[in-house]
User: What shape does this take?
Amino acid sequence: MKLYESETVELKEIYTPDLKKEIVAFANTNGGTIYIGVQSTGEIVGLDNADFVMQQISNSLRDGIRPDVSMFTNIELLRENNKYFIKLTVSQGTKKPYYLSDKGLKPTGVYVRSGTTSAPASEDAIRMMIKMTDGDSFESNRSLIQELTFNSLNKEMERRNLEFSEVHMKNLGIFSSDDIYTNMGLLVADQCKHSIKFAVFQGSDKLVFKDRKELTGSLFAQLTDAYKTIDFYNGTKATFHDLLRTDERDYPEDAVREALLNAIVHRDYSFSGSTIINLYSDRLEIISLGGLVSGLSLEAAMLGASQPRNEKLASLFYRMKLIEAYGTGISKIISCYKGLPVQPKFENVEGAFRVVLPNTHAQELSVEDEKYLPILRLFEKQKEITRSDVEEALGVGTTHAINMLKEMLGKELIKKVGSGRLTRYVVK
Assistant: This one.
């Protein structure tokens, strides 16, 4: 009996732990046979402890490889010329990619057969194997990252008095049926690889940055951080009717909330790019990747039609009462602007969906008049202001403060009350 190495045959003189790589490679490719006790030249040298080696192989199959590959292997003890050697037959597996349990779903843990050698698979090859095995659902596909923690999610569940056990994690789709973390698990884990990029611009274009940051972590952490950041920049205008004061935000809070939730829950996470939030003087733009689900038009979405791209993620947000019902987000945003002179805009293009929330007070202040904003902000805390208030707010002298107030009076942004030392200014 003469043996030769080939794409489907591997010869090993002795057993070593590296044998697991060959098993993984054959299971991930077209199957093959491994002979132990045979030199690379094809000469059978035999094994002195064949029974013990067979046990080692069985242990490696059980403990060292994931998913379980034992059902696709067969171990035989052969004898030739009074020499015992082992024939290990590995069939092509149906749960690709198979990987070394101590390395995980990454090139150092996933191997494929290339000629007569076993080589690490590329990340693209790993993703392709996952997609071929698990289907097109991004949420249900096995995650390339398996070292996950869920501190943010656990805190959110505790706040809502919701249980979060392993059973619940399986029901939520965080675990696959064979106890492997899914992409759904990765999205809500602290190690989530997707992010939100937030930028604040001076004026109504992108010429000058005022602030920028990248929000990372679990999608729940990103949602919280994004809302807090927008809220920080979301100005308040006070109006008075007789003695009754009414505070109105630049951007209706409910509209901001719904736009954020829609962007996070319904984006296409098979794209690696970030969700984009851009804040200008006159508008807030939120851009999520993927656009509407194929077959769902913008017109239909605005009528309330809904087809969740990420059903498991949407179901979790629904369970946590972050969303009330599918298909209501756009209508809620529109209702927040009912009766106002400015209205939100929704744009769906190939690969992206954009929500534009106009600043409800922007039409009252042009870009060139933005220098008056620090003064107008004073009215958020008090009904009337004085010249000295302006000096303190701007850090300027009396002459400059007087000139600024005169300009604002001329533009009818404010009006003067009283005279002399009793002069006060109120919002017109």
The mean pLDDT is 89. The radius of gyration is 32 Å.
